[in-house]
Design brief:
binds flavin-adenine dinucleotide; elongated; five-stranded parallel sheet; about 400 residues; alpha+beta
Length: about 400
Amino acid sequence: MANVIVIGGGAAGFPAAGRAAELGARVTILERGPELARKLRISGKGRGNVTNTAEMEDFIAAFGPNGKFLYGAFSRFFRDELLELLDRLGVPTEAERGGRVFPASGRAEDVADALVKWVRGVGVRVRLNTRVKRILVESAKVVGVETYAGPVHGERVVLATGGISYPKTGSTGDGYTMAAEVGHTVVSPRPSLSALVVEEAWVKRLQGLSLRNVKAVLYLDDKKLAQEFGEMLFTHFGVSGPTVLTLSRLVPDALKEGKVTLSIDLKPALSEEQLDRRLIRDFAQTRHFGNYLPDLLPRKLIPVFAELSGVPADIPVNKIIATQRKAIVSLLRDFRLTIRGARPVDEAIVTAGGVSVKEIDPRTMESKLVEGLYFAGEVIDVDAVTGGYNLQAAFSTGWVAGESAARDKAL
Ligand SMILES: Cc1cc2nc3c(=O)[nH]c(=O)nc-3n(C[C@H](O)[C@H](O)[C@H](O)COP(=O)(O)OP(=O)(O)OC[C@H]3O[C@@H](n4cnc5c(N)ncnc54)[C@H](O)[C@@H]3O)c2cc1C
């Protein structure tokens, strides 16, 4: 039987280890941290958005150009298989708005604990506080790994060390260095799904304000790059929330080319004409503009909005002239923020870049360069928008890597 070493006890490491052990391999997880699955436990704000109900085509599209690489893994272990596994382990799940699937208990901890129990139950050895330094290769074949506490021998190694975001959870980019050392190309790791830093100082006054049902459009100079509909959040440095995180993937490259702005449509359900008609009707009243605005906007936004509109808050609305009304309409449709950059990669939800998919067999997750070396999870150059896609990719590539490592070739 193969000795399979899984480097990293995270979302990808579990299915790799558990599946390989179920198939009879002798499996060891080497985890640098004092605890398993630290990132999984905090995922989805502690609720664990484990997958999505999207159809396969849309699921793959959520990963952008490299999504195609995942067809192989998804055709062997996809959402139904994951949900079945979780159900078997005593973690029922339910789908919410946007097709996001969470454990029914609302606790990511339950997913993590169930997976830990499963891998231990199928005989996986777990060595915590064991950081791997390098992968040992002889004649283009894996022979084991070297940890900071000495070597561990094994003829199969699954590299599941994650990306470089949230380094406190253990993912500090070690896997990229190890993969590069044995000859793999690593596409430069960079933040994906990050909050955005905004230039306008008044943004601080909106800290904590959450907007629902808005349209957020990202511009490079005058060119529209992408748009998202849904929720966003103001923070002390700028903006975050699902729409912003999704758009943030385009920001680092766009900033190299020009000025990047984010336009928020605060009333996307109304056309410009409808909005103007509504204001004409409402402005027949005698209330002050400042007292009228709560009909249109959340309270926290009002002082900043009134200032930016240039319309005095203490003017009766029936005294507002047409050009002022037009300015209000245009601010409601195009509340503009200048983007200075993404928050640092260690605060990103996901890392873009990683081990090149060109050098990994998509059906088995095995390295095309080193026999017996497999990749799983975020260390691979695939990343998606928010919605449960990233965890599904980690689970699927992990499962397939573990299955292949236990089954492949002359064992
Ligand atoms: C705050 C936050 C919320 C998120 N929420 C969601 C969500 O709701 N849905 C979703 O789909 N995705 C979410 N993600 C993304 C998702 O959690 C990751 O994509 C996923 O955990 C990647 O799994 P992984 O196993 O590849 O890496 P990780 O989960 O990072 O696991 C890697 C493991 O490898 C270990 N390791 C690293 N280097 C070494 C070494 N040298 N030796 C030994 N061990 C090592 C680490 O300690 C770690 O335990 C979120 C991410 C963050 C940061």
